Amino acid sequence: MTWLFPGVYALGDFDKRLYIGTHDPFAALAAMADVQLQYLVELYPFTETVRGVLQSIGVFPGVTALGDTLVRYAGGEVKERLSDQGFISAPDASDPNRTWRGRVINPLQFDSNILSGDGFSGGSQSFGGIDIINADGELDRFYAYFWSGRRVVVKAGAPGFGYDDFATIFEGAIENIEGDDSRIILTLRDNRAKTDKPVSAGVYGGTGNLDGDATLAGMQKPLCYGVVKNVAPVLVNYAMQVYQVHDGSIAAVDQVRDRGIVLDYAGDFADITTASPGSSEYATQLSAGLIRLGSTPAGQVTADVQGDNLNGFATSCTDIALRVLKTRLGVYSLSSGDIDEGSFGRLAEVLTGSAGLYIDADITGSDVLDALLNPAGAYWSFTRQGLLFAGAVTPPAEATGAVRHIDAAGLRLQQTIPPAWRIKVGYAPAVVVQSENDLAGGVDGNVQAFVTEPYRYVTYANETVRQKNNLASERVFETNLATKADAEALLHRLVDIYSTKRMVFQVPVYKTLYRYFLGDVVRLRYDRYGLDEGKDFLVVGVSDNAATGQTVLTLWG
């Protein structure tokens, strides 16, 4: 596979756009440092004045009298087309015979970053703007539109390109509209609105039996993924002592405890209402995530569960995240076309092992990504083209390209991050933490030790680092990983990342718009800051400005 400019490719973004075996006019254009780009901006606001069906209200149905015609307006989406230079599409284009008015001053200014302070923030929101001329008031209709969360697409090409030769360089959402007598500014955000949707499950009706009693009416059912420990299942039917841990099929219930006392397993049943476990036993209906006890418990009931197994048992951090996003955001659930699945596949090769997630409260898809990825030395965001992607933080090495065309003003050292002298990774979380008073006498010592602590920990410490650096920090990562071995593997990677002093530079460059992506590893050579021989850096921030032609890179290494 041959690339036009080695090393300047995204996590999964360029494998469709820049492979030379496929005709792609924009790919060839992007390889030219001095190219003059042309932009098309396509906006999709909502308006309440979309013209609807003409209806007659005359005396005789269907016979319209003078002045009796009613125009019905129904709200809907409209498409506004703008450009920086003006453009008309050809009759055979996919959007034929359309005019893009040349009113855009700055077709795209957009900033994205995965570094927050001295750590990686995962799902940081990315923002930007589009600047539009409106001195004659022709676009005053924009102020009557509804913009919040509405789709926007920015395409780039060159004079002479046909409409379908333009490439999408940004797809996201409008945040808001601002303006004065001469200009309109549309502020932008990335596609995080797609993952900010609430995670949804079935709801108890409160009609009794397995639908829950009246106290559960309207309450969302719990969700369980991967390997979870010491969850508190929902009591669905007191008389039958039926509990639920998941809205759907699960792989297994490994253990059930009453005040910490382990109950015996009486088997799995196709219908939990037909099960008759003994007084110190429990039965399951795995197909519906249900548990039935043989008697009224003495106290808190908890369970260790292997969760959702619809279409296979999802157990890794990446598998669980994708399972939730694709199936549990209701009508807003993501499809494969919304996700750079290649990036999640590469992350899964680094972030290995079993994990778990129990959802019994309001939570969004973004919260799920944060909980599973951020503590595990990973990050997520959206590409400029609008795809959800993820990556692992690793010490930058084997750069795939060099930073070129640095602005004459030079680069800026944004911050120096002192090393961590101690790093702790928490694993195997107890979803419900119980005190000794919550437990019965005679509880197994291992059970008591587990359920009374929120996490188990593996630790790295280096006193020499502490002695050399008065500001050396301690970092704690409380993960959803299930086993000590997987936590130790993560700890090893985090030590490589955080036990060394790191430098963060801001580097303004020209002639490289849209060529750098979060997660790229690049080589920075400069005659200051000890960079004479060059050093590899991770791209953790990108700011592209179409009006100035400048890209500002934030580099960590």
UniProtKB/TrEMBL annotation:
Quote the protein name from its UniProt record.
Answer: Tail protein
Q: Which organism is it from?
A: Hymenobacter fodinae
